[in-house]
Amino acid sequence: MGVCPVERGEDASPGQGGTAGQPDADACAVLERRLDEARALSQACDGLHGLTPHLSARSGMSAGQASGAWGFIAASLVFWLFAPDAVSLVAGTLAMLLFGFVIALRLAAAMFAPSAPSGTAKPRVSDEDLPLLTYLVPLLREANVVASLARAIEALDYPSGRIEVKFLVESDDEDTLAALRWLRLPGWFEIIPVPPGLPRTKPKALNYGLHFSRGEIVAVLDAEDRPAPSQPREAVAALRAGGPDLAVVQAPLLIHNQSENWLAEQFAMEYAIHFRIWLPFLVRIGWPLPLGGTSNYFLRRKLVEAGGWDAWNVTEDADIGIRLARLGGRAGVIVSPTFEEAPIRFGHWLAQRTRWMKGHLQTWLVVTRHPASAIRELGAWGFMGFAVTLGGSLAASLLHGPVMIWIGLGLISPAIDLQGWHAAFLGAGYGSAVLAALAARVSGPGFWSFARMLFYWPLLSIAMAAAVWELVKRPHYWAKTPHGVTRR
After folding, report:
1. What would the 3-class secondary structure string for 443-488 be?
2. Which pTM does this prediction carry?
3. In sequence order, what are the residues at sequence separation of 6 or more whose Cβ sits closer than 8 angstroms to the Cβ of residue 36?
4. Which of 8, 47, 156, 472 has CA atoms 20 to 30 A from the CA of 442?
């Protein structure tokens, strides 16, 4: 029951147009709307943390994790002082086992990758049988790209009567709001201003928009996205055919400006390997999926049951993918792509990659707060997949730069004990990445593209160092990636 109806015969002060003892209908409607917006904001910021604080990144590292980390660092230093050779042997062996396993998995993924996209052909569903689909589109300082984004959405092969688009715009972003108003969008588009306040993150905006959405299926798009027209129908068909445990499907993200410079070229290879090779392989072997930040299609009820997105995790996509798996949900993949813009300036790339890695560290801390519970929920196989994929990625990012420097020094200085198997191990990792890129059908790579990969990897260590610093100093800061910078 709303707050306006008078109860127990109590008098109410008349509003404009009302009479004594009867609330004004317009005033009641305004009050109800404002209360609904206030509840939506509260849910957007603290819904997950309020219900299940141990699954949210808001509280950061637990006391047990902090004491364990400091204890490990102290013990490692002590052992290093008294037995450096033994510590080096143990650390090197563990690293070799971890990365050897990851290399073997990458080779297997490349070997078993389909030679071409092969979505399962299904009869076309009539427009009347399609479910209501909601697109949530968080926007911040995107005035220069919203027109092309709106055109891309209008070009989707999905009836306008079965789709709603929620542009979630920060309320102080006057330029983007003005650009959207200028477009004169059709009625199935809606502009929703997101109230200010912390955290100022994409997942907070998504949670706020989710409160006002009605779709049976909820999908996320970013400002620079250009989804293939066939994508929504394929996602609906996959969710309907996937069984009761399928909660979300991920479309592949591909890069359209890979020829602009070497940074975009390497970014494009990363994306192609990740979305065309690695994620389908994880689905095949039954490991949890760290989702991409866009073009994922959720069953709304599964998303709500999981608590929505964590407003305090700056890589909310990986977090929600792992959390759905912990709750018994399964993720799948489709083949209709979304084309995106790669950063072409190192500063933009570094800020974006730092945020991603910081969010992965947050997700790692959340899952390992109570490892016994995580193992029970994910299963031993699923937890191993989480540890290898997320943990291996973080470890590799941390070590790429130091290892490349060490090998480079070993090639010019006899003081470095560089042995043949060290180079062979690096070559195996590099070779597996090249084979995966070839299997992913990256457009236009050649010898120099693959050679430049060796100079790209050490940049990940710079981003990882920045992510660790930010995790301590400003864990919930969201670094905005500019879009529309590319000339192509």
Report:
1. CCCCHHHHHHHHHHHHHHHHHHHHHHHHHHHCCCCCCCCCCCCCCC
2. 0.90
3. 211
4. 156
In terms of Cα–Cα distance, which of 26, 24, 28 is closest to 1?
28
Is residue 208 within 8 Å of residue 194, measured between CB atoms? yes
Length reported for the chain: 488
Residue 70 pLDDT: 85
**CB-count exposure of residue 196 (10 Å: 0-12, 13-18, 19+):** exposed
**Lateral strand order in the sheet of 253-255:** 226-227, 338-340, 253-255
Q: Which of 23-32, 150-159, 342-351 has the lowest mean pLDDT?
A: 23-32
Q: What is the DSSP letter of 62?
A: -
Quick check: bond before 199 cis, omega within 30? yes
Task: Write out 419-444 in H/E/C secondary structure.
Answer: CHHHHHHHHHHHHHHHHHHHHCCCCC
Q: What is the mean pLDDT of residues 44-50?
A: 89
* 133 DSSP β-pair partners: 163, 217
pLDDT greater at residue 93 or residue 290: 290
Contact 165, 190 (CB under 8 A): yes
Q: Give the span between the Cα atoms of 393 and 363, in whole angstroms.
A: 13
Long-range contacts of 125-129 (CB under 8 A, 24+ apart): 125/233, 125/236, 125/237, 127/159, 127/161, 127/162
- pLDDT of 30 higher than 70: yes
125/107: higher pLDDT? 107
Return d(Cα 96, Cα 83) in angstroms, integer.
Answer: 20
Could you report the per-residue pLDDT of 433-451, keeping only the tens digit for each?
888 988 888 766 677 888 8
What domains appear along the chain, each with residue ranges and CATH number?
87-488 (3.90.550.10)
Q: Which residue in the block uniquely carries the two structure tokens 């999981």?
A: 306
In the numeric block, the tokens 């160092």 are attached to: 465
Using pLDDT thresholds of 50, 70 and 90, give the confidence band for residue 4: low
CA dist., res. 149 & res. 65, Å (int): 43
Cα–Cα distances (Å) from 263 to 54, 56, 257, 268, 486, in that order, read 38, 33, 10, 9, 12
Q: Tell me how far apart the alpha carbons of residues 161 and 231 are, in angstroms, rounded to a whole number.
A: 17
Contacts 24+ apart (CB under 8 A), 367-371: 367/322, 367/326, 368/65, 369/54, 369/62, 369/64, 369/65, 370/54
> pLDDT digits over 367-378, tens only?
999 999 999 999
DSSP sequence for 159-212? -GGGEEEEEEEETT-HHHHHHHHHH---TTEEEEEEPP-S--SHHHHHHHHHHT
Cβ–Cβ under 8 Å, residues 9 and 3:
no
Distance (Å, rounded) from C-alpha 209 to C-alpha 219? 11
